[in-house]
Amino acid sequence: MSRLTLRGLSFDDRGALGITGAIGLRAGGAPARVGVIFGGPSPEHDVSILTGLQAARGLRSAPNIGEIRSLYWTKTGEWFETPNGLEASEYLSGPPNGSTPVHLGVGAGGGFITRKSGRFGSKEGPMELDAVIICCHGGPGEDGSLQGVLDLCGIPYTGPTLAGALIGMDKLVFSALMSSAWLQMLPRLPLFDGSQVPSFPGPYIVKPRFGGSSIGIEVFSDYQSARARLRVNPHLRRGAVLEPYQPELFDLQIAVRMWPEIQLSAIEKPLRTRAGGEILAYADKYVGSEGMSTAPSELPARISPELEVQIRTVAPEVAQLCNVRGVARIDFLSDGDALYVNEINTIPGSLARHLWIDPHLPFPALLLELLGEAIARPSAAFTTAGADGSVLRVAGSIGGKLG
Description:
11 helices; 5-stranded antiparallel β-sheet; Dna Ligase, domain 1; 24% helix; 403 residues; disordered N terminus; Rossmann fold; alpha+beta; 7-stranded mixed β-sheet
């Protein structure tokens, strides 16, 4: 039996956990107080619940974790602390029984604000958290919105920074960044009313510019049909991109993390289960008992050694360019020989836990490393250096400057 040692912890290859020392997430080795954020006003709301419940359950097996606070973000943007140990079906109608309203505020004394009861009544106060694990997919939980608020609150969090989240969620920005580093991608153009007919022939694949998980993606035989779809597909209203559709290409994906060092997972080939499926659809990925971890796939993918070397060479470059933080999943397209970068998922479904079979990384170990990075590698560092008042002292009349 092999054994993985991780900062005072040890895991055997069946995922059993043994404590050999203090994890040191908090000063003095005190048990860490962890929040798990999931849900959110996103088309991927339901999948986010699955990931959040998996993470909260995985933390129960991790040593030196004290409080685990489940923080549910509703489809309408409200916040609730929900009881631990619930099943996904209990979120079908919104906040489950026993949920307590909380709100997220910025500024001094900000953070997740909850009502505390005491001898002399109840009062509001910030929830004491050492870090939060973000399990939100798509929408404001993965596009930088939530990350920016948590930065202002001073709450350490897992996953991408605000900038990293923006890059990962904007398909045009991501494409431009990859192209600037000479990484091979299929042509990707903005699609809008009045945009020019592309130089490449159809059929075409149309994707939301902001979004993931194949939601809102459609294939069209001609350009006019693709452009007409802008008016009726709600996922394309914020923007759309157009690419050539090549049915011979299949999907390959690999997880990557940069902390405590660059590490790549096994390579997976997801399988399209729908009859006549043109793309790897949302249902292929997530409609299962545990999301991505139960989706049909080849894991590890049966690909040539040459293609595997290509993926393992390009993936770290993509991660470095996107300043990956936490665990990300990089998606490629290939025909078995050529390799194209497709996109990056900065908060992948199930936190890509199922991909860590070689090297073997138990889920509790992955979660602990995510938390360790959140605390040791802050997502933002604000400074007022240079704001010493010298400009204000010589500014003169504001009225004069406006004249």
